[in-house]
Write a structure and sequence with these properties.
The protein is of the alpha/beta class and 540 residues long. Helix content is 39%, strand content 16%. It has 22 helices and 18 strands. It has a six-stranded parallel beta sheet with strand order 3-2-4-5-7-6. A six-stranded parallel beta sheet has the order 14-13-15-16-18-17, with helices on both faces. It has a four-stranded parallel beta sheet with strand order 10-9-11-12, with helices on both faces. α16 links the parallel β13 and β14. α1 packs across α2, α14 crosses α15 and α15 crosses α22. It starts with a strand and ends in a 14-residue tail after the last strand. It holds the Pfam family TPP_enzyme_C.
């Protein structure tokens, strides 16, 4: 039996949101969306507010990524929505099911010059799966249901709705749609079989597992497939931790040896983009496994490309009953390379140099981070080191900006992570450049009693730009920041705490104090500006 509800537009929207499992709202206050606040306040629905709208969207995205359910951001009209577009775009690139509800100037005065009057849809439509203006109050539950269904349908992504002022403030009666959920996308069994034969027959296969493995709840199926076929596994994005570091098929340091020597590379749940050499692995055949046909690469021709529910595909690979090549020697060779790289990394993470090398920070962090700690990367050069030296032990414990590479995610992600996991360590790894984008939202964390630890790698430069520009031109411009700036005193002024660390020997005790503090705490580490993460250009 269909349920009918009566209320103003905010109450109708909230009823539909609750039906889809939305449990909190991230926002920055604005009059256009007051009815949504009224509905939340009247029903003990948590509201978390921020100092910049992009943080609200990033917080909603953190919830969506970590909990694999919709996250909600509510933004006021005009600049509220436009300030959130970078967050929506990140969610689009990251396939995060975020719903953004926007206010909108009144329709009955449209064109007269109302406050913050603009049509948001042409701006947000290219970076959302569903974008709609809801003109009728009684249509709000239907629109919320449609938007969330689109956001949750693989390939997942953000959705946007805005409500003219009179729509959301008016009272009406409406039917609450029945939530049926999103069914699995059935893969083509012939394409899955083709992939299984290629992997099983390969002499030197490699699996690279990405964020959609976690988002699609396919971690267990990935392990089953890897173990059944005895294939070494590397990970990126939220695929990190799918196999714990101690698993005999888990690799992180031997990627170059693996990709240069592999005859079949199996990429699961991540695009063939700049992070994976655009899918060019020399003579190796590529198997690209994706959660929806739209995600098949158009710039390369894989040997097989199964598309559909990743659990079904990976389970089918695990159940492959045909002949299988012996990969024992291949795995042993990669383990030798892995162990050698680990030994080199261990030496770097123990470096006693002053100024402090970034690797030493991560050596100390490895000692204090719990296995279930959520680590958040917000930065360029400094966070690149995190990807190398930190090895998540569990899935769903790593957040970074993803392929869009947007700085400023840190405080929003931290808020969403703390709301998602009240009892875990939450650690934000932030470059001093990235600190300029969102550090003011420490005030939001302090005010709402959401403690996190922030570690700033402070080298006084834009590291990803200064060193390459000098290499290309012999000089650099617009690449310097104030050296030794006291970001910790900024956090203290906002109600948190912190300290500056200039000597490697002081790092461990400072980090321990941060995690013991129970407040937002920033450890401002003065790092060596000449120490640059080695990389080739990602601009192509």
């Amino acid at each position: 039996m269909t349920e009918r509800i009566e209320g103003h537009g905010g109450e109708l929207a909230l009823a539909a949101l609750r039906a889809h499992g939305v449990r909190e709202m991230f926002t920055l206050s604005g009059g256009h969306v007051f009815p949504l606040y009224d509905a939340a306040h009247g029903s003990d629905f948590p509201i978390y507010d921020v100092r910049h709208e992009q943080s609200a969207v990033f917080a909603a995205e953190a919830v969506a990524k970590l909990q694999r359910r919709p996250g909600l951001a509510v933004l006021t009209a005009g600049p509220g929505v436009t300030n959130g577009i970078s967050g929506m775009t990140s969610a689009f690139f990251n396939a995060s099911p975020v719903l953004v509800l926007g206010g909108r100037a009144p329709a009955f005065r449209w064109g007269s010059g109302s406050l913050q009057e603009m049509d948001h849809l042409p701006l947000v439509a290219p970076v959302t799966k569903h974008a709609e203006t809801v003109f009728s109050t009684d249509d709000i539950p239907r629109a919320v249901d449609a938007a969330l269904t689109a956001a949750l349908t693989p390939h997942r992504g953000p959705a946007f709705l805005d409500f003219p002022l009179e729509t959301v403030f008016s009272i009406s009666e409406a039917e609450l749609p029945t939530v049926t959920g999103v069914g699995p996308v059935e893969p083509d069994p012939e394409e899955v079989g083709r992939a299984a034969l290629l992997i099983a027959a390969a002499q030197r296969p490699v699996i690279i597992a990405g964020s959609d493995v976690y988002a699609g709840d396919a971690v267990a199926a990935l392990r089953e497939a890897a173990e059944a076929l005895q294939v070494p596994v590397f990970t990126n994005g939220m695929g990190r931790g799918s196999l714990p570091p101690e698993h005999p098929l888990a690799f992180a340091k031997a990627r170059r040896a693996a990709l240069s020597g592999a005859d079949v590379v199996v990429v699961v749940g991540t695009p063939l983009d700049f992070r994976l050499s655009f899918g060019d692995f020399g003579d190796a055949k590529v198997v690209h496994i994706v959660d929806a046909p739209s995600q098949r690469a158009g710039h390369v021709q894989p040997a097989a490309a199964p598309a559909g529910d990743l659990r079904l595909i990976l389970s089918a690979l695990a159940d492959h009953s045909g002949d299988r090549a012996d990969h024992t020697d291949w795995i042993a060779d990669l383990r030798v390379a892995e162990d050698a790289a680990r030994a080199r990394d261990a030496a770097e993470m123990a470096a006693e140099t002053d100024p402090i090398r970034p690797a030493r920070i991560y050596g100390e962090l490895r000692r204090v981070l719990a296995r279930d700690a959520v680590t958040i990367g917000d930065g360029g050069d400094f966070v690149s080191y995190a990807g190398r030296y930190l090895e998540p032990a569990q899935p769903g414990t790593w957040l970074d900006p993803g392929p869009y590479g947007c700085l400023g995610t840190g405080m929003g992600y931290a808020m969403g992570a703390r709301v998602s996991h009240p009892d875990r360590q939450i650690c934000v790894l932030m470059g001093d450049g990235a600190a300029g984008f969102s550090l003011m939202d420490v005030e939001s964390l302090v005010r709402q009693k959401l403690p996190v630890v922030i570690v700033v790698g402070n080298n006084g430069i834009w590291g990803l730009e200064k060193h390459p520009m000098r290499a290309m031109y012999g000089y650099d411009v617009a690449a310097d920041l104030q050296p030794e700036l006291r970001y910790d005193t900024v956090v203290s002024a906002l109600g948190g705490a912190g300290e500056t660390v200039a000597k490697a020997a002081d790092l461990g005790p400072a980090l321990q104090r941060a995690f013991d503090s129970g407040v937002p705490y920033l450890v401002n580490v003065l790092t060596d500006p000449t120490d640059a993460y080695p990389r080739s250009s990602n601009l192509a």
